[in-house]
Write a structure and sequence with these properties.
The chain has about 190 residues and is α/β, with parallel strands linked by helices. The chain has one domain (about 10-190). Helix content is about 45%, strand content about 15%. The protein has helices spanning about 35-50, 65-70, 85-95, 100, 110, 115-130, 135-160, 160-165, and strands at about 10, 25, 75-80, 170-180, 185-190. A five-stranded mixed β-sheet has the order 2-1-3-4-5. The longest helix is centred in the last third of the chain and has 23 residues, at about 135-160. The protein is globular, with a radius of gyration of 18 Å. The two termini are about 35 Å apart. The relative contact order is 0.17.
């Protein structure tokens, strides 16, 4: 506990790369206590800020210590999209569906009960409308990745406390598809 310097939270599969210092708490996405563990890490980061263990990383910032303490905690919600052809990444960008995700009505009970088949139908319709060619296996992996991010976001939006933290700007969730090297390839804006 004495040596922690984490500034953000990462929800992802896989371990740490061989970095000399870790700046993120890792939360395993399939943990049945995902929200509990994520909330704990949010509280730890706030405690580190309040105690002065974490300093504002922005040089020349005009934030006071209180401003820094209350600034949003960043959560990187990642889905690893493995074995995808480069042309499929380009096709995914050509779909231009990211703006549709930001319009999700989180108050709609139908949306909160979406299954992977709903996501599949939505994405296949976008592929058809945009006349985009994407390799079938890559399309299925894309649907799996998007649904994985959506499902975690849904858990947060169903939880009263998380929902309030998101909507009030206390936490900011970056939903990102990354490739096998963990390079961010596609950002999904589920809440704007």
């Amino acid at each position: 506990y004495a040596n922690h310097q984490e500034e953000l939270i990462v929800i992802t599969d896989g371990g740490y790369a061989p970095f000399p210092a870790l700046d993120a708490f890792a939360v395993f996405p399939r943990d049945p206590f995902l929200l509990t563990n994520t909330k704990l890490t949010i509280d730890l980061i706030r405690t580190f800020r309040k105690s002065g263990k974490l300093k504002n990383p922005i040089v020349g910032s005009t934030f006071s210590q209180d401003d820094f303490f209350s600034s949003p905690v960043f959560i990187s919600n990642k889905s690893i999209f493995r074995n995808v052809q480069e042309k499929s990444w380009e096709a995914i960008e050509d779909l231009g569906i990211d703006s549709c995700f930001s319009q999700i009505a989180w108050d709609d009970p139908k949306v909160l009960s979406w299954r992977k088949s709903n996501m599949q139908k939505f994405i296949f319709e976008a592929v058809k409308q945009k006349n985009v060619v994407i390799e079938f296996g890559d399309a299925i992996r894309f649907i799996d990745g998007i649904y994985e991010l959506f499902d975690r976001m849904r858990q947060m939006m169903k939880d009263k406390n998380f929902r309030q933290m998101i909507l009030h700007g206390n936490i900011v969730v970056f939903n990102t598809l990354v490739d096998h090297n963990r390079k961010p390839r596609y950002i999904v804006q589920f809440v704007v």
